[in-house]
Task: inverse folding
Protein backbone atom coordinates (compact mmCIF):
# COMPACT_ATOMS: atom_id res chain seq x y z
CA UNK A 1 0.00 0.00 0.00
CA UNK A 2 1.32 3.43 -0.95
CA UNK A 3 -0.85 5.20 1.65
CA UNK A 4 -1.37 8.85 0.71
CA UNK A 5 0.48 10.14 -2.34
CA UNK A 6 0.83 13.73 -3.53
CA UNK A 7 2.09 15.26 -6.74
CA UNK A 8 4.13 17.26 -7.37
CA UNK A 9 6.67 17.33 -4.53
CA UNK A 10 7.97 20.79 -5.45
CA UNK A 11 6.56 23.60 -7.57
CA UNK A 12 7.49 27.17 -8.37
CA UNK A 13 4.80 29.46 -9.77
CA UNK A 14 4.69 33.06 -10.84
CA UNK A 15 2.04 35.32 -9.35
CA UNK A 16 -1.23 34.85 -11.21
CA UNK A 17 -0.49 31.37 -12.53
CA UNK A 18 -2.78 28.47 -11.71
CA UNK A 19 -2.07 24.91 -10.74
CA UNK A 20 -3.66 21.82 -9.25
CA UNK A 21 -2.17 19.72 -6.47
CA UNK A 22 -3.12 16.07 -6.72
CA UNK A 23 -3.74 13.69 -3.83
CA UNK A 24 -4.70 10.02 -3.81
CA UNK A 25 -5.13 7.42 -1.07
CA UNK A 26 -5.41 3.65 -1.35
CA UNK A 27 -6.73 2.90 2.15
CA UNK A 28 -10.42 3.12 1.22
CA UNK A 29 -10.81 6.08 3.56
CA UNK A 30 -13.97 8.14 3.47
CA UNK A 31 -12.51 11.48 4.54
CA UNK A 32 -9.76 13.57 3.00
CA UNK A 33 -8.17 16.88 3.96
CA UNK A 34 -5.92 19.61 2.64
CA UNK A 35 -3.67 21.53 5.04
CA UNK A 36 -1.05 24.20 4.66
CA UNK A 37 1.95 24.46 6.95
CA UNK A 38 3.71 27.75 7.56
CA UNK A 39 6.55 28.44 10.01
CA UNK A 40 5.19 29.11 13.49
CA UNK A 41 1.60 28.44 12.41
CA UNK A 42 1.29 24.70 12.66
CA UNK A 43 -1.09 22.99 10.24
CA UNK A 44 -4.13 24.90 9.12
CA UNK A 45 -7.04 23.22 7.39
CA UNK A 46 -7.88 24.59 3.96
CA UNK A 47 -10.70 22.28 2.82
CA UNK A 48 -11.90 18.83 3.69
CA UNK A 49 -14.18 16.18 2.27
CA UNK A 50 -16.03 14.16 4.86
CA UNK A 51 -17.17 11.65 2.26
CA UNK A 52 -17.24 11.20 -1.50
CA UNK A 53 -19.33 13.91 -3.07
CA UNK A 54 -19.02 16.44 -0.25
CA UNK A 55 -16.55 19.23 0.43
CA UNK A 56 -16.41 21.89 3.13
CA UNK A 57 -14.32 24.91 3.93
CA UNK A 58 -11.76 24.77 6.67
CA UNK A 59 -9.94 27.55 8.48
CA UNK A 60 -8.18 29.19 5.49
CA UNK A 61 -10.14 28.47 2.24
CA UNK A 62 -9.71 31.80 0.43
CA UNK A 63 -7.87 31.50 -2.86
CA UNK A 64 -8.37 27.74 -3.15
CA UNK A 65 -10.87 25.31 -4.65
CA UNK A 66 -11.11 21.55 -4.25
CA UNK A 67 -12.58 18.60 -6.07
CA UNK A 68 -13.32 15.19 -4.63
CA UNK A 69 -12.98 13.32 -7.90
CA UNK A 70 -13.85 9.93 -6.43
CA UNK A 71 -13.28 8.12 -3.17
CA UNK A 72 -9.53 7.90 -3.79
CA UNK A 73 -8.70 11.35 -5.12
CA UNK A 74 -8.94 14.87 -3.71
CA UNK A 75 -7.37 17.75 -5.61
CA UNK A 76 -6.57 21.32 -4.55
CA UNK A 77 -6.56 24.11 -7.12
CA UNK A 78 -5.00 27.55 -6.95
CA UNK A 79 -6.71 29.64 -9.63
CA UNK A 80 -4.47 32.71 -9.38
CA UNK A 81 -1.45 32.09 -7.20
CA UNK A 82 -0.26 34.79 -4.80
CA UNK A 83 3.01 35.05 -2.83
CA UNK A 84 0.96 34.55 0.38
CA UNK A 85 0.24 31.03 -0.84
CA UNK A 86 3.89 30.06 -0.60
CA UNK A 87 3.74 27.17 1.82
CA UNK A 88 4.02 23.43 2.26
CA UNK A 89 0.77 21.66 1.45
CA UNK A 90 -0.26 18.37 2.98
CA UNK A 91 -3.04 16.03 2.01
CA UNK A 92 -4.40 13.62 4.62
CA UNK A 93 -7.07 10.97 4.86
CA UNK A 94 -8.95 9.20 7.64
CA UNK A 95 -11.39 6.35 7.90
CA UNK A 96 -14.26 8.68 8.71
CA UNK A 97 -14.69 12.33 9.57
CA UNK A 98 -14.17 13.52 13.06
CA UNK A 99 -11.53 14.01 15.62
CA UNK A 100 -11.33 10.45 16.90
CA UNK A 101 -9.77 8.93 13.82
CA UNK A 102 -6.09 8.97 13.02
CA UNK A 103 -5.22 11.00 9.96
CA UNK A 104 -2.66 9.62 7.51
CA UNK A 105 -0.58 12.22 5.74
CA UNK A 106 1.07 12.46 2.36
CA UNK A 107 4.69 13.62 1.94
CA UNK A 108 3.75 17.22 1.19
CA UNK A 109 4.22 19.66 -1.69
CA UNK A 110 6.52 22.63 -1.28
CA UNK A 111 5.05 25.51 -3.30
CA UNK A 112 6.83 28.79 -3.92
CA UNK A 113 5.02 31.69 -5.56
CA UNK A 114 7.27 34.48 -6.84
CA UNK B 1 -13.72 26.71 19.29
CA UNK B 2 -10.96 24.51 20.55
CA UNK B 3 -7.41 25.81 20.90
CA UNK B 4 -4.16 23.92 21.32
CA UNK B 5 -1.04 25.61 22.71
CA UNK B 6 2.52 24.38 22.55
CA UNK B 7 4.58 26.88 24.50
CA UNK B 8 8.03 25.50 23.64
CA UNK B 9 8.96 26.43 20.05
CA UNK B 10 12.32 24.64 20.32
CA UNK B 11 14.01 22.16 22.63
CA UNK B 12 17.23 20.21 22.60
CA UNK B 13 18.47 17.30 24.68
CA UNK B 14 21.45 14.99 24.77
CA UNK B 15 21.07 11.54 23.28
CA UNK B 16 19.81 8.94 25.80
CA UNK B 17 18.27 11.57 28.05
CA UNK B 18 14.57 12.03 28.74
CA UNK B 19 12.65 15.01 27.41
CA UNK B 20 9.10 16.25 27.98
CA UNK B 21 7.15 18.32 25.47
CA UNK B 22 4.24 20.40 26.75
CA UNK B 23 0.78 20.84 25.31
CA UNK B 24 -2.28 22.53 26.75
CA UNK B 25 -5.71 22.82 25.22
CA UNK B 26 -8.96 24.59 25.83
CA UNK B 27 -12.33 22.94 25.36
CA UNK B 28 -15.72 22.66 26.95
CA UNK B 29 -16.16 19.12 25.65
CA UNK B 30 -15.92 16.10 27.90
CA UNK B 31 -15.25 13.27 25.46
CA UNK B 32 -12.42 13.96 23.07
CA UNK B 33 -9.14 12.62 21.73
CA UNK B 34 -5.61 13.94 21.87
CA UNK B 35 -2.75 13.08 19.55
CA UNK B 36 0.97 13.66 19.20
CA UNK B 37 2.29 13.68 15.64
CA UNK B 38 5.96 13.66 14.66
CA UNK B 39 7.33 15.37 11.56
CA UNK B 40 10.97 14.45 10.88
CA UNK B 41 13.12 16.35 8.34
CA UNK B 42 11.58 14.18 5.61
CA UNK B 43 8.32 16.14 6.28
CA UNK B 44 6.26 12.96 6.61
CA UNK B 45 3.74 13.35 9.46
CA UNK B 46 3.55 10.25 11.62
CA UNK B 47 1.22 9.51 14.53
CA UNK B 48 3.22 8.92 17.70
CA UNK B 49 0.57 8.36 20.33
CA UNK B 50 -3.12 8.88 21.01
CA UNK B 51 -5.13 9.36 24.21
CA UNK B 52 -8.87 9.02 24.73
CA UNK B 53 -10.11 11.54 27.28
CA UNK B 54 -12.42 9.04 28.94
CA UNK B 55 -9.48 6.79 29.81
CA UNK B 56 -7.70 7.65 33.03
CA UNK B 57 -4.67 5.55 32.17
CA UNK B 58 -1.94 7.38 30.32
CA UNK B 59 -1.12 6.01 26.88
CA UNK B 60 2.33 4.55 26.18
CA UNK B 61 4.06 3.42 23.00
CA UNK B 62 7.51 1.98 23.66
CA UNK B 63 9.73 4.95 24.63
CA UNK B 64 6.88 7.45 24.23
CA UNK B 65 4.37 8.14 26.97
CA UNK B 66 1.96 10.90 27.85
CA UNK B 67 0.99 12.66 31.04
CA UNK B 68 -2.68 13.44 30.57
CA UNK B 69 -4.15 15.81 33.17
CA UNK B 70 -7.79 16.27 32.18
CA UNK B 71 -8.69 18.82 34.85
CA UNK B 72 -5.66 20.93 33.97
CA UNK B 73 -6.23 20.39 30.23
CA UNK B 74 -2.65 19.34 29.83
CA UNK B 75 -1.23 16.63 27.56
CA UNK B 76 2.56 16.36 27.67
CA UNK B 77 4.71 13.89 25.74
CA UNK B 78 7.65 12.19 27.41
CA UNK B 79 10.37 10.63 25.28
CA UNK B 80 12.65 8.31 27.23
CA UNK B 81 16.14 7.23 26.16
CA UNK B 82 16.04 9.74 23.32
CA UNK B 83 17.60 8.75 20.01
CA UNK B 84 18.97 10.75 17.09
CA UNK B 85 15.98 9.60 15.05
CA UNK B 86 13.68 11.43 17.45
CA UNK B 87 14.88 14.75 16.01
CA UNK B 88 11.71 16.24 14.50
CA UNK B 89 8.88 18.71 14.85
CA UNK B 90 6.23 17.44 17.24
CA UNK B 91 2.63 18.55 16.95
CA UNK B 92 -0.07 18.15 19.55
CA UNK B 93 -3.61 17.81 18.17
CA UNK B 94 -7.14 17.77 19.60
CA UNK B 95 -10.24 16.17 18.14
CA UNK B 96 -13.79 15.30 19.11
CA UNK B 97 -17.03 14.15 17.52
CA UNK B 98 -17.30 15.07 13.86
CA UNK B 99 -15.07 18.10 14.20
CA UNK B 100 -11.76 18.37 12.42
CA UNK B 101 -8.45 18.07 14.23
CA UNK B 102 -7.00 21.24 15.73
CA UNK B 103 -3.20 21.32 15.73
CA UNK B 104 -0.77 23.24 17.91
CA UNK B 105 2.08 25.26 16.39
CA UNK B 106 4.66 22.57 17.07
CA UNK B 107 7.87 22.06 19.05
CA UNK B 108 11.13 21.54 17.20
CA UNK B 109 13.11 18.89 19.08
CA UNK B 110 16.80 18.32 18.43
CA UNK B 111 18.64 15.32 19.87
CA UNK B 112 22.31 16.13 20.33
CA UNK B 113 24.83 13.28 19.85
Result:
Amino acid sequence: NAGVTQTPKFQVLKTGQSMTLQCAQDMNHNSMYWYRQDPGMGLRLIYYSASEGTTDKGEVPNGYNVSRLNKREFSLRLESAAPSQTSVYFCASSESPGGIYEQYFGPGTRLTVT
Amino acid sequence: AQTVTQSQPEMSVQEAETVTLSCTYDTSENNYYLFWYKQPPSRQMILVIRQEAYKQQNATENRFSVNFQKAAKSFSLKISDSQLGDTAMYFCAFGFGNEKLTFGTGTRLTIIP
